[in-house]
């Protein structure tokens, strides 16, 4: 680091030390990161700018077709407990409602349900943003899930309906979701979408609230099991 930049960095550190609250310091650090991101050689890469955002401003989307089984949720908690957050939550910035999750819903869920994790990050989540319209954010969610080998046929049916409602063709779905035309056709047939698409009238196959409740029940079950084990260890 050259001497001029080093002197500026020292001045910035002194100013940050004057912040009266953690919230104020986080806000200033986020602003600094955003300014540096704007001139970065990697400004087109979302991961180049990780911001810490209050969990109250980060919320689930309406389409995520992915559930995590209890053993994997336990492992996710253990991973965050032992290593901290090593992956940011991918979001789309929504002006009125905050940050809508594209990928990372379960990492968000762990923080909201485990006081030890919450305290470590003071209720903040590491977030990156992708500036895309809804259909592209949906496609991004599916790509993340499929790359991990985790997506559910029934809930994928809801995605197909929503993308169709947004005017996306089979060709667009094939290109952006990495699905061949036979796979799209099989999915329509399995879920009854082929007939529904001809009629162009849809009913929602996936209820966001029910899905979130299922994941929260998994987390609650994990917490109760952990509490039981702790009680037995003290007997």
Quick structural summary:
This protein is α/β, with parallel strands linked by helices and about 240 residues long. The protein is built from eleven helices and five strands; from the N terminus they run ααββαββααβαααααα.
Explain how this protein is built:
With 235 residues, the protein is of the alpha/beta class. The chain has a single domain, classed as Conserved hypothetical protein from pyrococcus furiosus pfu- 392566-001, ParB domain, CATH 3.90.1530. Helix content is 60%, strand content 10%. It is built from eleven helices and five strands, in the order H-H-E-E-H-E-E-H-H-E-H-H-H-H-H-H. It has helices at residues 3-16, 22-38, 70-83, 105-113, 115-121, 134-147, 153-165, 170-177, 181-191, 193-199, 208-233; strands spanning 51-54, 58-59, 89-94, 98-103, 124-129. Strands 1-5-3-4-2 form a five-stranded mixed β-sheet. A hairpin with a 3-residue loop joins strand 3 and strand 4 (98-103). The longest helix has 26 residues, at 208-233. The radius of gyration is 21 Å and the shape is globular. The termini are far apart. The model is unreliable at 199-206 (pLDDT under 50).
């Amino acid at each position: 680091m050259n001497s001029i930049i080093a002197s500026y960095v020292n001045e910035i550190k002194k100013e940050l030390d004057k912040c009266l609250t953690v919230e104020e310091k986080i806000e200033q650090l986020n602003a600094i990161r955003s300014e540096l991101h704007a001139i970065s050689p990697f400004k087109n890469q979302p991961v180049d700018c990780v911001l810490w955002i209050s969990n109250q401003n980060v919320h689930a989307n309406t389409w995520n077709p992915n559930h995590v089984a209890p053993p994997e949720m336990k492992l996710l908690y253990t991973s965050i407990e032992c290593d901290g957050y090593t992956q940011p939550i991918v979001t789309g910035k929504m002006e009125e409602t905050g940050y809508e999750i594209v990928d990372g819903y379960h990492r968000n869920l762990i923080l909201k349900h485990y006081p030890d994790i919450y305290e470590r990050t003071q209720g903040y989540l590491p977030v990156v943003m992708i500036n895309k319209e809804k259909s592209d954010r949906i496609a991004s969610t599916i790509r993340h899930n499929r790359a991990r080998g985790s997506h559910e046929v029934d809930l994928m049916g809801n995605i197909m309906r929503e993308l169709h409602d947004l005017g996306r063709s089979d060709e667009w779905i094939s290109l952006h979701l990495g699905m061949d035309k036979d796979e799209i056709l099989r999915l329509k047939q399995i879920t009854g979408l082929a007939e529904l698409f001809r009629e162009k009238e849809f009913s929602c196959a996936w209820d966001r609230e029910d899905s979130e409740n299922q994941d929260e029940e998994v987390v609650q079950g994990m917490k109760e099991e952990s509490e039981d084990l702790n009680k037995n260890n003290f007997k």
